[in-house]
Fold these 2 entries.
Entry 1:
Amino acid sequence: MAGTDVVTLGDFIEQESQDFEGSLAFTIKADYIKREKLWKSKDLAAEFLGNFWRHILDVESIKATLQFVCAELMENAVYHSVKSEYMIVIQLCFKTDELMVYVKNSAGTEHMEEFKKFAGTVLAEKDLQKLFIQRMKEVKQTGSKKSQVGLITLIKDRGAKLSWKLEQHPDLTVVTTLARISLQGKVA
Amino acid sequence: MKIEGEGYTVTYRNGQVKISGKLSLMLEDYSELEAFFKHIIESGPSELTLDIRNLEYLNSSGIKTICVGLILEAADVEGLTMKILCSNQYTWQKETIPTFEALMDNMAILFE
């Protein structure tokens, strides 16, 4: 796209290039409803997605995993969205061997360098347990609000594979986060 | 002492902190729970039990609040021992809570 600087972090795959068996999307303007209501809706949407795909796939364990992954990614989207006219989109796509959760939101470009650095660390780190403990101790020492523990937990505990696409526009950056959850060995 | 919110309850009595329900507040809304934990640590217990056996859901801001506001604060108190009571029925607890062990030396994590 002309005038747009695009960077991908990790093994990002475009939705358009995929052949899905099915998908389900929620789309809402970031500022259409009060943040508190959006927060509550996010929990309901995550629970619904967890239940829906558990039923479709007939895999009991996928419900809790999906609920956590969807809720955490939507929490990040709600926190970082900066422009009301931009949409928060969560799309859950199903392939025979994996689920792909795409969450798209706008974010302040000024935060992107810090985010790229963090994403690089998370993607390269082999010992995420160590990184988790280190982040908790740093947060206690510095009083920082940004623990990024959500993203670390998604990889470390929920087995999600994360990647991002950052599209820098003149006044904001559009961030698409992709969480891939393997279904291998889970679907009968 | 007790905090009751939409879908969750936190109580403290005789060295036992019990959190139950679904806890998924916005980051800034955890300040009440942080103050609650601070008060507990300052009351000077010699043993502390965190009972989350009925905690169905905890978001990452909640994980941060418990790790930083309660466990790491407790780790700084000399002689204080801690136990976390967990439930095998919640997958997230089995996946996430064992990681907490490295936050504090005198801590036991028990599943049932």
Entry 2:
Amino acid sequence: MTKSQALRILIADDSDSDRLILKTLMRRLGHQVRAAANGSEAVAIFPDYEPDIVLLDVLMPVMDGITAARKIKALAGEELVPVIFLTSLTDADALARCLDAGGDDFLTKPYNKVVIQAKLGAFSRMRQMHQTLSQQRDLIGERNRQLLEEQQLAKRVFDNIAHTGCLDADNLQYHASPMSIFNGDILFACPTPAGGMQVLIGDFTGHGLPAAIGALPVAEIFYSMTSMGFSGSDVLREINDKLCRILPTGMFCCAAMIQADFHLNQLRVWNGGLPDGVLFRQDGGRDLLLSRHLPLGVVKASRFDAGMDVFHTRAGDTLLMMTDGVLEAENAAAERYGETRLRQALDNAPDHKAPIGTLLESIRSFTGEQSGRDDLTMVSLNMVVASEFREVAERLPQSALKGPAAWHCVYEVKDDTIAGSSPLPLLLHICMEVPGLRRKSAEVYTLLSELYTNALEHGVLGLSSDLKSSADGFSDYYVRREQRLDRVEGHFIRFELTHSTSPQGGRLVIVCEDSGQGFDHDRVLAPGATGALASHADNQQGKYSGRGLQLIQKLGHSLRYSEYGSRAEIVYDWESATG
Amino acid sequence: MNDKPHLDEEALTELQDVMEDEFDVLIGTYLKDSSDRISFLRNAIGTADADAFARTAHSFKGSSINIGAPRLGELCLKAEKAGKDNRLDEAAVVVDAIESEFQQVEQTLKRFLA
């Protein structure tokens, strides 16, 4: 016999001789023993003695074994203290009553040393197992509590970085479950300095914190670059590059970028792995926004295509994008909502300006789930008249630092760089360093971008904006634009910015020169002119362009062209906010 | 009727082995408890307390089996049943048999003492 672990044993038996036998037997086996003559005594001894195992005679005076067993089990609480009944009982009913009272086993008389030793060993192992289990349960409970606490903390940090931006804008509608961040879903919206907005909707592979972590750099990049005036393509490239570098293989982000320009009445959309988006036209027509790209974080920068599809829109057109959760919503029979039901729901939608309510209703009646415990993320964006979209730049926080007030700088982009990147974010950034000018970011951006667009498209590329006067020409214009961007060798666009202060605010002088042949600026700037910017072609009624220069004229205090239109100078006087 | 031996020598030897020095104490305790119990059984018949009779018979049975006196244990079981069934006439007869068997066991057990 292997020497088993010494146990503390409590015995209750009213028969002196039986008690003596058992006590001696247990001591010989190496255990500690306390003996009681009835159940009541045993219950009294139990709390202080804290025995590992209790042996109880069934029939005893004062308090019988069954009552004592109940009381002892109650005192032991969660802890497992095996109770073994000592008995010469043979009838099944009586034995069953003992087990009902919480008894774990029987020892029958006459006692047998081998049997007793084996049973004590078995119960000792059971008790240890129970203890291990309880400890591990407590440990798991504690870990789980920590995890929840950490998740709460993570969510707070996340909500600060990956805030919802301008999702509350009047022209946006969205649905996202409150803890969607831990589903790996993202939905951000941010006004652009030019008075438009960019929206990013996406879905990371995986669940829980790992899926949420990737969303942090995405939010950071999206908000900072968008508010600096970077285009959707630029933001996508940066996010893709970042995710490629930080995410493990097999983890990526299906996403769609929406860039809305309310001045140009134009939507640019990039869909990488999300379900088809839908553009509802005011006239009842419908365009599908197909996924043409791999998700973000899959291909390296050199092979990444950030080209966005361009759609010409009218105020009242509505765009809808969603994540996979919509198609994958399951009902009780494990059927998926799927594309067919989605299409039917959208076909029957009463109001195409508010498709999300219709869709939610349809999905919920399909799944039978009314609570917010879904995995759905969707957003719809209404195209609005530019003047109706009150952008948020005016509310931007002012830096506490004093910035440069009187300065002059020249920035020139040449050759391939003209095609590859826009100088606007950098130039805007420089201007925004001027204390007080940040509030005017939309105006400054508009000035810079109109000068830049004219210099690039009409100057360097020599495109005629007449093309843009019809919807077909509109896309043709962009095709030619792409083609000619490949042939910009030897060209340049040069910005010269000068800022000085005045008692009321400041003066920003912007000079933009390009290497193109110039264009007929006089006609465009003539009073009442609605004509397109045209360098060679006849001036026709233009609908889609030519507004830029007039806008500039309105904003800037003076606009002067020279060198046949290849040099433009704006003097922009601004006043700092009072009070 | 009752073919169990008066004493289970094997069980007694094992008890001796387990109890070592305390074996004598054990036998002494058992003998004293048992004669007390016989008096208690007779009293219970006198007061017609069938319940007390049955419980004492039950305890007596257990300790007799444990000490290695199976025939006495068997008689106690008969007494316990008679008590439970409230057959006190029959119980009185069984107590006589118990007393005579106990005397025999006592004689034999004393031989085991050193």
